[in-house]
Amino acid sequence: MKKYLILLILAVVVVAGCTGKQVSQDVNSGLTINSFTATEPQTTSGDMVLFDMEVDNIGGTTARNAQVDLFGVEGQWRDSFGNLIQDTQTKQLGTLRPPFPLRNIPGDMKLVQWQLMTPNIPQGIAPNKQVEARVTYDYNTSGHFTIGAMSEDEYRRQQINNQQITFTPEIVNSEGPLHLTISDTFLKPIIVDTTSPDAFETHPFQFVLTNVGGGFPITPEDDSRIRGAGGKLEGTIDVFGPGVSFDDCLGATSGTHVDLDDSEILVRVRDNNQVPIACSIKIDKSQWGNRPEDSVEFVFNIFYRYYNYKTVTVNVVGAR
């Protein structure tokens, strides 16, 4: 009986330990390379080296079409059968789901290995051979921005009554390597003057998409407009609110929806790691009517291919 109770207590402890485990998640990451190692950091020409890599999704959305390539092995290293390697030894990783901290479920992880033969090195020298593992994947960044709007009459009434004007703009990002921000310059409330003869009230915004991850967004290879330029983003921008539409957003001067693929201005993150997006809106006063307060909301749904990398160095001693 005592033995049974001891086993039961141990089982409870084990279960409690498992459910209490911290799930890794990073607001600035998608797929991350936890480790990339070589079993023989120093070896002889013609010997075998085992490369081992661990990849984990610690972001907020699903990584799709993930793959890993080895750079620095083509034309030098050989496979296990002694054949000269002519490509980047691509391994397909498929789809990796993100963690679910609320249920203590970690993100998907993949383990990858390559066994390669070191290059032919002449006797008397021992060069360092650097090998890079690069993980590329399709990822998604979502952003939601809400800002208050009020009529001119309501604004004045609150001022006269010495009321504190409630104004709490909010911007929310999904966790990943690209983040959406907006400068304080564009955070003032929208005041709709229904007494003026103008049919529309306009208001400018400038959002900024910033690369906060450890890698870079890259252009799909089949892009015909800016092939090879790098950093192109795809997706949509939508605006919601009473009588609200775009006044000028990436070339769109009407409607509430912008498709980045069809916009006049291409959106891409380049060497400076960020891209500004100007999106002015207009409010149709006839649709606004006599409402005192409301809000305007922007929803960003951005898609891109991204890569991270790590390198290892193998010191190869020339054969005798």
Describe this structure in words.
The protein is mainly beta and 320 residues long. It folds into 2 domains: 24-138 and 307-317, Immunoglobulins (Immunoglobulin-like); 140-306. The protein is 10% helix and 46% strand. The chain contains 3 helices and 18 strands. It has helices at 2-19, 152-160, 285-288, and strands spanning 31-38, 42-44, 48-57, 63-71, 91-96, 109-117, 128-151, 170-173, 178-182, 190-192, 200-203, 206-211, 216-218, 234-240, 244-249, 257-259, 274-284, 293-317. The strands form 3 sheets. Strands 2, 4, 5, 7, 8, 10, 13, 14, 16 and 18 form a 10-stranded mixed β-sheet that branches. Strands 9, 11, 12, 15 and 17 form a 5-stranded antiparallel β-sheet that branches. A 3-stranded antiparallel β-sheet has the order 1-3-6, with no helix packed on it. The protein starts with a helix and ends with a strand. The model is unreliable at 1-21 (pLDDT under 50).
